[in-house]
Amino acid sequence: MPEHTLAPSPGRHPGTEAGMEPDAVLALDRRHVWHPYGPMPGTLEPLVVESAQGVRLRLARPAFGQRELVDGMSSWWSAVHGYNHPVLNEAAREQLGRMSHVMFGGLTHEPAVRLAATLAEISPGGLEHVFLSDSGSVAVEVAVKMCLQHWRSLGRPEKRRLLTWRGGYHGDTWHPMSVCDPDGGMHHLWSGALPVQVFAQAPPAGFDAGPDPDYLRELDELIGRHAHELAAVIVEPVVQGAGGMRFHSPAYVRALREACDAHDVLLVLDEIATGFGRTGSLFAAGHAGTAPDVMCVGKALTGGYVSMAATLCTPRVAEGIARGSVPVLAHGPTFMGNPLAASLANASIGLLLSQDWRSEVERVGSGLRAGLAPAAALPGVREVSVLGAIGVLRLDHEVDMTAATRAAVETGVWLRPFRDTVYAMPPYITPDEDVARIAAALCAAAREG
């Protein structure tokens, strides 16, 4: 038998084996599984999770003395209600009894229709049309395609570039990579192949900081100078996430809206990380009191159960596309409008809006703020910031991932630092004592990493 072949157990089909020992899982993982942002084979051994409940991940075997870890990451910011939630479990079971999937081309169904109507109702004003997809990166790809096709259909094909500011992150597929920070991330590997976009300087830091008049003027001038070739401006409002976990004043989002209106450019807001309450507003655009022409959502959309995303747009954008020689948006993911995902999204949004989510986010933020206050005195920590249910420690050096992760796990918390940043985005249901533990783990990771 070839070395790479895994023999199935007698009477079983490959892939149906249950109850594997952790060592066997890790051996197969190392041989076959390519993890995100890692080499093949991997150099860091992952922890094997066997189950999750509430805000805790249960490991298949102890790691650094811990069998359970408080999840400080909400599984990359998606599991806002925690794990194994009875409301979401029941929504999944009920929908599975009806249908798990049906194609969306030529067919429709209640879960997707209800979801689209709900998103249109709760989103910033004017976003009436909803295109459902299966990941955040695809939602951004669709947003870009909408904007490019809008102008092409109106007889202005020269408006095909995008403007953004440095420090951003919009996904790992093609057009999203082109508007991620060109220097600070891994996407510089593709320079010369990606579309060349227009970059402004990163917005001055500080959610509560007053807007810088010079920066506002430079932003408006840059948009005006390139307006003839710009299809859209695309940014993450208020929080730049995976590009660096930086907060900025909502005034800069308002300024972008005004400049886009003045220079006839569309505005796209990427709310994949910030949507559904994470910043203390249901959508981060709410802090700015404004609305985009196109908005992307994902991550917390389904409460972290399954992958789903959406791109919303105004009638202006849709009507522009409809006027072209090709009046359709030529995009259709196989799992578009997936009934199971849509049902979970409906349940997750309903659960969020049925409770005082704003107070819960404020409670988590207050706990992080109190727990991270001592971090300002730690060697190597140059910035401590909290917004909504997000806590960030910025270091003056690159994080030692191995040391920082071990320090957090020894504290009983799962964190995933990157570059010069140690941060947490806990589930909104995280109890106060676990919020304090997460803050302690952030401090430990910063101290050791």
TrEMBL record:
Domain of life, source organism: Bacteria
Protein EC: 2.6.1.62
Enzyme class: transferase
One protein family per Pfam: Aminotran_3
Keyword Nucleus annotated: no
Localization: Cytoplasm
Binding site for pyridoxal 5'-phosphate: 136-137, 270, 333-334
Gene3D superfamilies: Aspartate Aminotransferase, domain 1 (3.90.1150.10), Type I PLP-dependent aspartate aminotransferase-like (Major domain) (3.40.640.10)
Keywords: Aminotransferase, Biotin biosynthesis, Cytoplasm, Pyridoxal phosphate, S-adenosyl-L-methionine, Transferase
Pathway(s): Cofactor biosynthesis; biotin biosynthesis; 7,8-diaminononanoate from 8-amino-7-oxononanoate (SAM route): step 1/1
Primary site of residence: cytoplasm
Positions that bind substrate: 76, 169, 299, 332, 416
Site keyed Participates in the substrate recognition with KAPA and in a stacking interaction with the adenine ring of SAM: positions: 37
Cofactor: pyridoxal 5'-phosphate
Catalytic activity reported: (8S)-8-amino-7-oxononanoate + S-adenosyl-L-methionine = S-adenosyl-4-methylsulfanyl-2-oxobutanoate + (7R,8S)-7,8-diammoniononanoate
Quaternary structure and partners: Homodimer.
Record-stated family: Belongs to the class-III pyridoxal-phosphate-dependent aminotransferase family. BioA subfamily.
Function: Catalyzes the transfer of the alpha-amino group from S-adenosyl-L-methionine (SAM) to 7-keto-8-aminopelargonic acid (KAPA) to form 7,8-diaminopelargonic acid (DAPA). It is the only aminotransferase known to utilize SAM as an amino donor.
Protein's name in the database: Adenosylmethionine-8-amino-7-oxononanoate aminotransferase
Organism: Streptomyces axinellae
Record gene name: bioA
